[in-house]
Amino acid sequence: MSPQVSVVILNWNGRRYLDDCLTSLQSQTFTDFEIILVDNGSTDDSVEWVETHFPQVCLIRNAQNVGFAEGNNQAIRSTAAEFIVTLNNDTRVEPGWLAALVEAVASDSAVGMVASKMIFADRPGMINSAGIALDPVGIAWDRLGGTHDDPNETVLVEVFGPCAGAALYRRAMLDQIGLFDADFFAYLEDVDLAWRARLSGWRCLYAPAARVYHVHSATGGEGSPFKNRLLGRNKVWTIAKNYGPAGRLLVYLPLIVLYDLAAVLYALIVRRETAPLQGRLMALKGLPDVWRRRRVVQALRRQNRGQPWFHYLSPLDWPWRVSVRYRHLAVDSARR
User: Per residue in 267-281, is it b (16+ CB within 10 Å) or e — as a string?
Assistant: First the structure.
């Protein structure tokens, strides 16, 4: 019989993190799971090391880096488990982590996603992510990022979606709405997936007892041109695909453009960075194809039996307040 849960770990030159990650998984109180590690063409000794020290791990080897989205998709397609858990390689999980995720998804058959409590590995008293927050102009960020961690918190809370760095997904939901969008390569693919799930009526719970310690952006690098370029591109694509119905998009489109323009100008003038602008230009080039796929995504709304997705949005901040949401990440980048 297939295990109930498949834990999927993406790796790209992350050998230095794998020992902590895989060792912590061996101590889980929930044991009906398998581990699938997808290596995206690492040039360190990641694959050889895993084969030697963790032979029970199922390995998928890619000759090149196919990205976070497609790498996870490969693993999901390779297994028949009822639940898929995506986990970053730069994490360490507490013994009750997986049990808390499974308990949360079992609480209601309409729950298709569960978010972990991700805590900064170098600042164990501070939350990195408690799920995805999304505002009315399509800006996504880590819910409760930078706030104090209460280790005794246990109450399940409804949130927009989970951060894919440590998330559980129900296979029945993925069969209905599709997997991660491989064109995103990396970043915001979890927002896109959560938005599609919400359009189709699936719920997401945040399980604070599912505790994970995370080295934030160890692979892509917080604030790197590579990351900012993909964030800029994928944000436009995410809104173009998922924001609906069309009437609601038209109402908010002026504000969406205004806030996005403010973000690009801030990057150009204050931080002297061109990567966010480059990402938006890349997005516009691919927009005709994304817009054609929008019809498929918006058809999911006809299947929706729950609350509309916009009932789960966070309040809109003034443009000059948006950067406060990410202030703790700038500090984290400087520390590293």
Answer: beeeeebebbbebbe
